[in-house]
Amino acid sequence: MNDPPILRTENLGKRFGPFVALRGITAEFRAGALTAIIGPNGAGKSTYFNLLSGALAPSEGRILFEGRDITGTPQHRFAHLGIAKSFQITTVFPQLPALENVRVAAQARVARYDIWRPRARLHDLLAEAETLLDTVGLARHRDRPASTLAHGEQRALEIAMALAVRPRLLLLDEPTAGMSPEETRSMMELIVRLAAARTVILVEHKMRLVMGISDRILVLHHGELLAQGTPDDIRRNDTVRRVYLGQREH
Amino acid sequence: MARADLMAAAARHRAALAAAALLVFPLLMPFKAIAVNILVQGLFAVGFNLLYGYLGLLSFGHAALLGSGAYACGIVLVRFGWPWWAALAAGPLGGMAIAAAIGALAIRTRGIYFAMVTLALAQCLYFIAYQATGWTGGENGLRGVNIAAIRLAGLRIDLVDPLHRYYFVAVFVIAALFALSRILASPFGAVMEAVRENEARARACGYDIRTTRWLAFVLSGGFCGLAGALQAIHLGIVPVETLYYTTSGLVVMMTLLGGAGTFFGPFIGAGLFGMLEELVSLWTVHWQLVVGVVFVACVLFFPRGVWGTLLAGRGR
User: Fold this and answer.
1) Of B187, B197, B204, the CB nearest to A94
2) How is chain A split into domains, by residue range?
3) Burial A8-44 (b: 16+ CB within 10 A, else e)
4) Dmax of chain B from CA atoms?
5) CB nearest to B200's CB, from A87, A111, A164
6) Given an 8 Å threshold on Cβ–Cβ distance, is A107 in contact with B183?
7) Which of A82, A118, B81, B268 has the smallest C-beta neighbourhood within 10 Å, fewest atoms?
């Protein structure tokens, strides 16, 4: 592959006081690929995710998005750059209807400080929000407040909101956390569908979920990059087997 | 028409309905001067509610925004002899300018710290006004903020007459309500809701939380500044207590009493407060005690406020 990577981290590290959460992560993410970041609890997955999504500033190293250094960019600018994320803990606007959740997410691209135009006049956003709700299978719940949706539906709603940013890079932090097996299955199907049209980076605790669908896998362990490669590479990697596969899965 | 449809229609025409209520109010109200008070305090609470009710940001320094509007209007009228309409315009501009400055410092903090920083900055302004006697009249207040009569298109509006004064003030309050309704229905209104609902998600969508809060604070300053200017004209004086922290506490109480986050609640709160003060003080000098008990009972048993509770009862 000679395509330039969409995202690259160089020697990325994060310390919380004396505690080193992440150290020296140099990795590349190919455009168009579905990459999973896996590792046991406390491996630094979430820290790495939070650095990639701008929620945390790195203590050292650089992050390059489409060849551009975005280290230290304020979080809200990430959406404008074309990077969207879903949170590990469901994060929606609970009292707003599902449709308005997505509409207001899409609105961030075009009208952030407009205090005068009626928002109803932004028809395109409404149509776009309806399409996105349909994509994640929530069209029939468009008028229900987000807080009244089932857990799995709220997670799907969050993904529709992330898509409303029109991201070139979609970051998902344990999108199936707390889901029933059924909900998990439909979420994984959704992710595969989304990954067909854009770059997706996925943090996942449960390794078996991502083995079948990922193009590439990064394995973190004790805050360091243990291995990276195709799912087959990872399956054959002895070190990975020792630290990860040997464990009971949750 | 189903009840929900009726509620939706009422919500769409909230500014017009509020205007109608305010226009009828003095005809039902025996004390006209108190009616003007309620109108002005209601607008003040509307400005506060924009920030607290719709964005979820609790300021304890809103006296600064009311006071700067009142002084801006009074000073240009008394010291510079500007015409009344220019002085009235100076109110919201003064409120917005002070809000821009206080907001720029305060939005860096959140929660109780935001309340404390706004309180401290407002107290600074109070002491400045207290000392700058040449401009503000110090503790005697700024006197002589009088507009006797206004001639407009052949109409003579006599501001000494309480009913004339009421409708003069009401014109500006109603204009402000239409502006507020428009702001709430704008894309920025949606952003305020989103930020109130979930900051982390709003940020991830691409909204800058600080700028959003700052802009809402400045807008709030515009409404409070207008309320200040109208109050100055209504009372004919700007007492220095306008800037005192008790004024900030009062607006919090009125808004909570009426119903934070509702369109008309602030007027209900101001009305209840004004009436309670007036009626209870007829039979006891300890009227504040009674008002305090009513307020505590309200917060405990009607956390949505009087108007919010009524709306919730009808809407569901």
Assistant:
1) B197
2) 1-82+169-250, 92-166
3) bbbebbbeeeeebbbbebebbbbebbbbbbbbbeebb
4) 61
5) A87
6) no
7) B81
The CATH homologous superfamily to which domain A1-82+169-250 belongs is P-loop containing nucleotide triphosphate hydrolases (3.40.50.300)
Cross-strand bridge partners of residue A15: A20
Element (H, E) at A13: strand A7-16
Reported ipTM? 0.92
Q: How many domains does chain B have?
A: 1
For residue B230, tell me if it sits in a domain: yes
What is the C-alpha to C-alpha distance for residues A99 and A140, in angstroms, rounded to an integer? 10
| CA-based torsion, A43, A225, A162, A34: positive or negative | negative
Q: Which stretches within B79-161 are classed as H helix?
A: 84-106, 111-131, 133-136
Residues of A in contact with B203 (CB under 8 A): 75-76
Cβ–Cβ below 8 Å for B200 and A91: yes
Give the residue ranges of DSSP H helices in chain B: 3-12, 14-28, 32-55, 63-78, 84-106, 111-131, 133-136, 162-185, 187-197, 199-205, 209-235, 245-258, 265-283, 287-301, 305-315
pLDDT of A249 reads 47
Tell me the whole-structure pTM to 2 decimals: 0.93
B258 domain-assigned: no
Question: What pLDDT band is residue B315 in, cutting at 50, 70 and 90?
Answer: low
Question: How many inter-chain contacts (A to B, CB under 8 Å) are there?
Answer: 105
Does the beta-carbon distance from B204 to A96 stay under 8 Å?
Answer: no
The boundaries of the domain holding residue B213 are 9-244
